[in-house]
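User
New here, explain this?
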Amino acid sequence: MANITMETSSNIFYQTRCAAAKYNEHLSSREKVEEIISIDRGKLYRIERGVAIPYPEEIHMMADLYNAPQLRNYYCRHCCILGKDMPEADIEDIDRITVRALVILRKVSDTKDALLDITADGIIDDDEKPVLYEIVKVLDEINEVTASLKNWIKRNKILDE
């Protein structure tokens, strides 16, 4: 994998293929990947260079082949206009995900109480809007941790889906 540009080396599609190549030597070349999942090596090069956007079917094949479920989330958030508001799902170690989950769960009780206080009268006043925004941020954090945990489970093949 010589002559790699900065754009390519920082590209998630290239990075995940390289990470997968540590466990499957066939993934170290685009030619072998082309044989396995029938994505033209030129197209794969353009995807890894960041000048072409993969099709959803290609994302599924790469995610499965590379054991990289985070590619699906990345594609939805960064390549598809419909998914830009999806929660960010990273691949982290289970202990980091657990710590993040516990920190967020601490906030849930206060968040629940604030939401009840704001919506009790059925009207969102101007002074309540910033609090409501903070409640949504906490709920978004819960979504992100949930998505990260799901990715970890898929990556480690804990549950069959």
